[in-house]
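Bit of a strange request maybe. I'm writing a small parser for structure token strings and I need a real example to test against, not something I typed by hand. Could someone generate the tokens for this chain?
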Amino acid sequence: MSLIKRYFELETPSCVKMMIYGQSGMGKTTLALSAPRPLLIDFDGGVKRVNLAHVKDVGTVQVASWSKVQQVLQEDLSDYDSIVVDTAGKMMDFIITHVCGFRQPQLRDWGTINLEAQNFIRSISALNKNIVIVAHRDVRKEGDTNVFIPALREKNYNTLVAELDLLGYMETKTDNNVVKRSITFDPTPRNDGKNTCGLPSVMFIPEIIDRRTGHTTAPNNFIQAQIIEPYKAMIEIKRSEAQKYEQVMTEIREAVELVTDEVSANDFVQRIDEYDHVGSSKQQASLLINEKAKALGLTWNKKDKRYEPADSKK
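Reply from user aminoacidic:
Good idea to test on real output. This should exercise your parser:
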């Protein structure tokens, strides 16, 4: 069987791995908690800055050591669909302390440090949980241009981002003379980004808190409604296509199994276009009948476009 597959034949995880970053005070933690049924792993005490309405029903882990985080992943997390990490920089500090103690990390340590972070993200994905990582904003100089990036050590940055589906930059934009918060997952000349889910270039984040009273005015569900649900809908389309593919391939395999001679082999070839082909199913059908024909001692006559006994060419 061919190792080459179409998009709907691939195994695609249904959880999302993302990082959002921006200046302090942008509401990054609140946005991260808009993921479905979140568990907050609070590395830097950020939970105290979130409106009570958005955290009163949220499970929270106040981190004292990296070993405690590892213990949390061994607990029953069935009540949670998402793990929120706040913040990426503080998480890496805890990992560095876990690996190096109180000495400065040396060159040989960074591989172990990065592997620990990778394993953490992969462990969450293995539990079929979304992961939303919050990061502060830093600036990288590229000639005369400032590029906004997550605030991470250079030795950690690529390792973490490589594990993610989405990297989004939060900022304020003026829309119809109104200043609004926005997020972009597209990489641009002024910010790093990653957008493997085909999200819009710029997404405006609605205000859900009355700044005069501090009361909430709408549910905190932006990530769930605008990112994860559309992503899952896309995955369901792929799965539906995959089911159709498997169905037609089952029919093809059964038909090839019934081929016993030259006549039935050529009959299959004549009917090959009658199947409701999906993706590479026609190519796979051709490979299967060719393998079966070889097993029966048949060869393909290119001129007549039919199988015939191998000894007929002698």
